[in-house]
Amino acid sequence: MKSYIVELTVKRFFIYLIMILLTLLAVVPVYVVLINATRSTEQINMGVSLIPSHYVSYNWHALTSRGFQIWQGFYNSAFVSIMTTLVAVYFSSMTAYGLHVYKFHGKKLLWGVILLVMMLPASLSFIGFYQFMARLKLLDNYIPLIIPAVASAGTVLFLRQYMTSVLSFELIDASRIDGAGEFRTFNWIVLPIITPAIAAQAIFSFVGSWNNFFNAFVLISSTRKYTLPMLVQMLRGDIYRTEYGGIYLGIAISLIPILVFYAFMSKFIISGITMGGVKE
Predict the structure, then answer these.
(1) Sign of the torsion angle spanned by Cα atoms 74, 78, 79, 80
(2) Which residues of the chain have pLDDT under 70?
């Protein structure tokens, strides 16, 4: 009995140690960014520090003096991220609902195609996507950043798995017997049931869209349409001096919406992922 208690204690120690290390790996980089946002370029070049400095106002001046339209960048990033999240979550939920509830020829083939698309890297088809958008004259437009979220294979996979765990066919049949149409059944019965999964995927979609720099950098050319990550990149335009303190301050500001989302929606992430990974 004593050896069993010792073994259990050792296992718990290593589990807690691994959790602490993973927490540090997640928290320390963000903390260093926040600290560097308060330091000057000279201090940053001297090395890493965990103690805040007093150059926030100077870094803020470095941001605003180089055409860094922070509120415009916030608005552009928020608009693209919110619209992308709404499109991705709603249409992915609808696709997952159709694959879970309906029976039709080619269902397994379609599901295999979705899994195949999910495994392909997005950069593989970006050149063709850019040429396609150019032919449609949709460059320098937010549409190429928003509409492709309709085909979010990873979100479809997660939501279908979640529906398999929580959605009852009897409830859907009862709704149809009561005279509700398919869209009414989906919008008023299915969506409230899968709210935790939707919330979890909404956060992932929002964060991914907010941090999306490469696609926006290639597709958007007008400065007034730049998202916040693109505006931060503009701070590197001076060939004589790069204000790293201002860059870190811009990065820290761009992290605020993500941190707020995680702070208020973390419980939905945990419950949604936990339930989506269980199948009855």
Answers:
(1) positive
(2) 1-2, 66-68, 235-241, 266-280
Q: Distance (Å, rounded) from C-alpha 167 to C-alpha 175?
A: 13
39 is a domain residue = no
- pTM for the structure as a whole: 0.81
Residue 109's domain spans which residues?
Answer: 69-235+249-276
DSSP string, 14-73: HHHHHHHHHHHHHHHHHHHHHHHTTS-HHHHHH---SS--S-HHHHHHHHHTTT--HHHH
Structure tokens at 219: 């597709």
Q: Are 100 and 157 in contact (CB under 8 A)?
A: no
CATH code: domain of residue 190: 1.10.3720.10
Confirm whether 33 is domain-assigned: no
pLDDT one-digit tens code per residue, 227-277? 888 887 776 655 446 778 888 888 888 888 887 877 777 666 665 555 544
Count of domains observed in the chain: 1
